[in-house]
Amino acid sequence: MSIQEFVAPHSLSEAKSLLADGAMASVLAGGTDLLVGVRLGTRSPERVVDLKKIPELTAISVDAEALHIGAAASAFSILHDSDVPSFFPGFAEALDLIGSTQIQGRCSAGGNLCNASPAADSIPALIANGAQCVITGPAGDHQMPVEDFVLGPSKNALKEGELLVALILPRPSSQTADAYLRLTPRTEMDIAVAGVGVSLTLDGEGTCTAARVSIGAVAPTALLVEAAGAALIGTQLEATAIEAAVAAAREAACPISDKRGTAEYRTHVVGVLVARAIAQAQARIVEASS
Amino acid sequence: MNAYQEFSIIGSRPIRPDGLDKVTGRARYGADLNMQGQIYGYIVRSPHAHAIIQSIDCSQALAMEGVLAVMTGEDLPVPGDSVLGSGEGAIALKDLSPMVMSQGKVLFHAQAVAAVAATSPELAAEAAALIAVSYQVLPAVTNMHEALGADAPILHADRFPDGFPEEPTNLAAHISLEVGEPDAAFERADVVIEQTYSVPMCHQGYIEPHACVARVDAAGRVDLWCSTQGHFTVAQYTAALTGIDVGKVKVTASEIGGGFGGKTTVYLEPVAVVLAQKSGRPVKMVMDRGDVFRVTGPAPGAQTRVKLGAMKDGQLVAADVECVMDSGAYNGNPAGIPAFMATACYKLTNARSTGRAVYTNKPKIHAYRAPSVPQVTLGFELAMTELAAELGMDPLAFRLKNAVEEGDVNMMGAPYKRIGLRECLEVASTHAHYKAPVAEGEGRGVAAGYWINAGLQSSATLNVLSDGHLSILTGSPDIGGSRASMALMAAEVLGIPFEHIHPQIAATDAVGHCDVTGGSRTTLATGQAVIQAAEQCVAEMCRRAAAEWEVEAVVVTWSQGAAHYGEQSLTFEALARRAGTMGGPLTFSSSLTASSAAPSFGVHICDAKVDKETGRTTITRYTVIQDAGKAIHPAYVEGQMQGGAAQGIGWALNEEYLYDEHGALQNPGFLDYRIPVASDLPFIDTVIVEVPNPLHPFGVKGVGEVPIVPPMPAVAEAVYRSAGVRLRDLPLNPPKIVAALQEQ
Ligand SMILES: Cc1cc2nc3c(=O)[nH]c(=O)nc-3n(C[C@H](O)[C@H](O)[C@H](O)COP(=O)(O)OP(=O)(O)OC[C@H]3O[C@@H](n4cnc5c(N)ncnc54)[C@H](O)[C@@H]3O)c2cc1C
Question: Topology of A176-289 in CATH?
Fold first, then answer.
């Protein structure tokens, strides 16, 4: 069955009722996953609900506590018309890795998350930064951490009729920085063989006081590797601490061997990226405070 | 001695006549034509890689509202033993027909088994799902080494290559050549090396998928539009495959979005014609990207064992090459070329060369830029580099010491005429790239390459227009800027402005026969037809001017776009305007079977840096040096050199066909079939060497194919030098490099 109906509501309440009346509906943010799926025959919604005309869903704002990113805000607007890159250079780099300029003009962080690909680039960066999902639906609004949102490949925690409204990233201190690195055989237009998001906080002496490490493309979902963060906290990020974080990430990884790389390779390379991402986040903090 | 020694416009770089339409999106490609009343064809494909078709039931599909025709293999004639074409281009109908539609048996996954035409593409797809095919599934083999094993499933129980016992195997062809006494020469050699190298099956990777529209008129005449490298070949193949007289088939070539050899055959066209015949409506067919990868194109994977012997002073004394090539499910003839051409760059009077082709449950292989030569050259050139290192010689100096030159004889037996390998090697040795020290952590590789180049049949018609402009009609689809070259060659002979010349690709009923745009032959052969027709035009114009001046034609000269005698002159434009009263329209045609083809050689230099932790390779600097004979339009010669290098780099690093255990292709798309993107490549520097081809009036040699020959061995050596670990099995992707480094 092909698409029967395309609706572009102007308000969240309208969108909610369009999703709740029982029709086989899919929401469309940028459509860069959805439309590819329709063409491949893996998705066959009867109704498509476009989110881009709903102001809350494309808004980006900063307050004293956090950054709020509308779920359908395009990667381009996040990268070029907001403060996000200055607060979260790693998350911005993750978005900037998605597709090409044309793709970035359409695609959203919310879509990247809801699509729930194990290899999605922005998800490890969101997890590393402790991002929360704002969800609305027939049963009202609620929030959950990004690491709990993705349940498996193409499976997210949204219930029937629910919608991701925004992503909330706690505002980082001046002693906090993030980094995101991925490995692809090509430089662009490729899919992560492994991805790593790291967020670090250092005190004035260079001691790590908080750390979150998230790994992507090496398990059915992006993982928060708490043991890797724990291995760093309280250290000066010396070689042994980084080795321990690398080992914890490799331990947590449970990749498959497929056309994109062997399990051995993915496990190896996710460790390489953890070490490099830690070094990059650390360098960002040092640079910002010098 | 070339007929033309000095040039006024040849060698300049005007903007191609087809450029503006291409960059503004107006150019019409295969899928851009729609015919009034057209319906849409859709192909039902086998879910199995090897099976007997027990039955096909189309009744439910045919009963659907909006479905106007169905077809199966039964609608095509049985191929029998007939052969199409001759010589190099010959192909048995039994190897071609099943690539269009299977008859009774499928030998690879996604092979066509039936087709349906309906009033919309969606409806056609829905109807296709209702066609019920029952299969008896057979075991499949996709690995060519396993296919040669004793217990492998046999693909063709009725085929025995010449000279082999009459028991079926999967050996498709076997050819063995020998010159001199290689065994004795190896005994004599100071240093002998022997290694085995391999390359995976890959795809040409053209951006434009196959597409066509076919219409059959009330008298049964076919009007076919498609994306192709050779519409005369499409007409011939389509006629033979459908049983329609070729005289009733007219084919028009669309603009083409890449082919690289892969569009020198037919897949959809005969199906669209049969569906159009049956439905009485024009039928349009467009292949999707997945099917382009699954059922068209692939270039054979190959394994090459190379044994080389040399004296301490660097003289090469013996070679023994054995190349096993994957032919896919039918005979794509990949074995002969490596056997004949493996040693073509070097003076070798004692050599043995063997080529074998193997049937596997994969699509039949097809031509890809210098077909089969890059695969065998990976082995031969990398072995040359390894041997140079053992001898303690510079790899270019070692090649220069052994490089072929005029008078040398290769395995094909004919002595070389004036060739440019030595010149290319000399330019490479002194090039700034080669002189520059290798950067820290990087490695450098060099390699040479050879390609024979084709001549074949070409035609051109020149029509002088009444305002002094000129239209050029040829039957050679333009895949690399050849229209610009045709206009330049005519402008050179006629002395009229490039902008006044309008080159076009005419349909099969509007110009004389042209073989495919392939074998790097178009600028050489079709160009020669244009030159000859332009020379006829000059002769006729001089004759008319002579008549006007009442003098003998021989005393009239032609220069700067005008006929001259003494103080008198008549311009091209004046003669064009007055054609009606001076003898009638000025139209000139020339056709030939070109015997002017000459081989081309290239030398590539590659610097690469391997990230030893991740195994990723970055190509940091790349230079292509190539003999073009005479570069008609240097920018498009450079474009060929750069494009060939880019494709070779992709094949070396990441491109690879990956099959699952059931014989289904796992990476049928550009996401997982990784051709390089622009940011993966450095600027590819080029040096055009010009050693004129003595057989061609302008000195042209083919340039399109040889640039894909040297990259794999050049990249492989650069990777070895940077990573410190030698890999002889391509592609050199990150997991493979990391695994090799960890093993070390
Ligand atoms: C050429 C190309 C290259 C790409 N490269 C990359 C890459 O490098 N890295 C990468 O990670 N991805 C890549 N992608 C995938 C894709 O672009 C990203 O996942 C993108 O972020 C998806 O965003 P979107 O807004 O287009 O999503 P859409 O296609 O609009 O939506 C994706 C899915 O999420 C659902 N959805 C969207 N928004 C919401 C919402 N607010 N609430 C509930 N459900 C929602 C949709 O129904 C759909 O199922 C690429 C895609 C293409 C076509």
Answer: Enolase-like; domain 1 (3.30.390)
